[in-house]
Amino acid sequence: MMNRTNHIWMNGQLVPWESATTHVMSHALHYGSSVFEGIRSYASTRGPVFFRLEDHIDRLLMSAHIYSMPLKHDRDALLAACHEVITKNELDAAYLRPLAYRGYGKLGLNPGDTPVDIIIAAVPWGDYHGGDSKNDGLDVRIVSWQRPAPNTLPAMAKAGGNYLSGQLVAAEAHRDGYHEGIALDVNGYVSEGSGMNVFAVKNGVLFTPTAASSILPGLTRDTVFHLAKELGLEVRSENLVREVLTIADEVFLVGTAAEITPVRSIDRKPIGAGTCGPITKRLQDAFADLINGRIADPHGYITAVQTSPAAKQVAV
Length: 316
Description:
Distance between the termini: 24 Å
Helix content: 25-40%
Strand content: 25-35%
CATH architecture of the largest domain: Alpha-Beta Barrel
Number of strands: 17
Low-confidence stretches: 311-316
Largest sheet: 9 strands, mixed
CATH superfamily of the largest domain: D-amino Acid Aminotransferase, subunit A, domain 2
CATH class of the largest domain: Alpha Beta
Mean pLDDT: 94
Radius of gyration: 20 Å
Number of helices: 8
Structural class: alpha+beta
Order of helices and strands: EEHEEEHHEEHEHEEEEHEHEEEHE
Shape: globular
């Protein structure tokens, strides 16, 4: 069950959680016409901080542009709203969900001038996979579902409809007793997990699929590129056949929700020592140090949560 909070930012106003509703005939509910982001805030030693807040909002705007969804609020308003929902809900470690969707207007695949609504919610957040998965690792399988081919759906857009594929990946894996699934692309190369990017480590080198393998080029994936470089590690982005994963020394999954999570087995075959590998652990530690300000932040990934001007609150 989802942990609820007190307020959701909706179309420019803070409204009570239970009042943030939409009509059952909304376009997005019938056709998947939505774009969204998942953003983390952390309880750091310097107070609550966002991780790559501006990059997430920029990607939301990019996704909306790809799907020709005009937003009523600009970048600055959306950034301020993210600060607002954290402070008004008195959160520190949280998961934010900005969501833009075509609302109540008309039916039909051509949305025309159907209005685009936007919300930003925030809920308390812990470990995505639960337990001690960051140390123990996950049991993963290669699923039967493939990711959509290029030029069928824009994989670079973080669109709600794209995650029907992710639901199939996750459901098949969980049904068969695994923690997570990895899908291949239309050419049989490794693509991504249900909502996470994939890395393999072999002989000290990191390998990850290219954007051409129908992946969402994740912000945590991009962060791993930078952290690895700062640790003196080589990263190669290339087409990966599935057996690269099973013979790897280490495999890990990355995403905003999952952060950096090791994989201990794939299709019941152990990966390395069957626990968190040394390079994965170095990256996990570097990520934690970045969040807590123990290492330099040359890319400006960390933003302190600020109290923003009071938003207009709608009475119930």
